[in-house]
Amino acid sequence: MDLSCDLMGIKLKNPLILSSGPMSRSGEMMIKALEAGAGAVVTETILNEIRPNVRPRLTGHDGALQNIRLYSEYSLEEWKRQIGMVKEHGGIVIANILAHSPSEMAFLGRTVERYGADALELGVSSPHGEGLSVLGCDPPNLYQTVKKVVESVKIPVMVKLSPNVNNLASLAKAAEDAGARGISAINTIRSILGVDIESMSPYLPTYGGYSGDPIRPIGLGAVATICQTVELSVSGIGGISQFNHLLEYIMLGARTCQLQSALIFKGLGVIGEILDGLSAWMESRGYNSLDEFRGKALNRLKSFDEIILEPKVAMVARECPRPDCSLCETACVYSAVAKDRRGKIQVDTDRCTGCGLCLSVCPESCFTLEWKR
């Protein structure tokens, strides 16, 4: 089974990449991810000067993570050794860098290129620390910065975009026009994960980056938007913890995917589990390469105006084997679904409007949508 893929002209053995974050804070940690099966690694955010991190800075609840960790605590000079360790191990390293001006970003890019980085990921936004009025919100400024970096290095440049904007397509196009060869999306989402109601304090003392399984729908929407807008390599990020999550991103056009939160919660073994699941799924369906199904779901994504209004209603496809289950009846906002005392499902087709919710909430697939008779 061939899981290899091309990212900005770089050949990867598989599409799963360790994203920038606490798990990529050192050469040692990145090597562990490569040994667990990752196709490449992205460094923690590298700056021109050290900025200490606050304590505490991470909190996790219900499969979600809030992070107020800012940047690497290693100096720029120390990253020469950390990147060198990974290169000696044979790994592909994408250096995530962040600066406050185009010239500083270009300087960082040239420096980590000398250190051996195979590509750059420009960190142009952060949901905390930098606030929301940052480079990643302004297409003209983004264009100037990306252009400056592209002109300063020989390795490919990827731009990491934030979901905390309302002009994602414009930002992606600005990056493409400036010469970027890839987009990664999404960065974490500005959040407050929760409040301790006894102490009346938030779990962490400031806004932070929200990540983990709950943000996957936002990541999928962003990747689809970007893939419909630009002809660049896209690396999907957000809520990937199972092989089917990886498949969703690829089917919406992503060439690779990055993960971090799942590894924090479940360990590096998740990488192998996802890749094994991907291989088994492809083999069971006769696929030999990722390109055979890449973008297939994107091709079926329509604008609202393109949707054909079809007079369909819910119909019972099979009798429910769970007499005590009432999920469909409870969820039907049109009061069209009911169960009798024996558990037999009844659909009032005069009330049913074909919304489709019963199909998604039913754990036994008892419903279909059919033309109204």
From TrEMBL:
GO molecular function: dihydropyrimidine dehydrogenase (NAD+) activity; iron-sulfur cluster binding; metal ion binding; NADP binding; uracil binding
Lineage of the species this protein comes from: Bacteria, Pseudomonadati, Spirochaetota, Spirochaetia, Spirochaetales
Protein name, entry field: dihydrouracil dehydrogenase (NAD(+))
Example of a GO biological process term: thymine catabolic process
Record has Kinase as a keyword: no
Record-annotated membrane-spanning stretches: none
Residues covered by the 4Fe-4S ferredoxin-type domain: 343-372
Family stated for the protein in its record: Belongs to the dihydropyrimidine dehydrogenase family.
EC number(s) given by UniProt: 1.3.1.1
Top-tier EC class: oxidoreductase
Species: Spirochaeta isovalerica
UniProt catalytic activity: 5,6-dihydrothymine + NAD(+) = thymine + NADH + H(+); 5,6-dihydrouracil + NAD(+) = uracil + NADH + H(+)
Pfam families for the chain: DHO_dh (PF01180), Fer4 (PF00037)
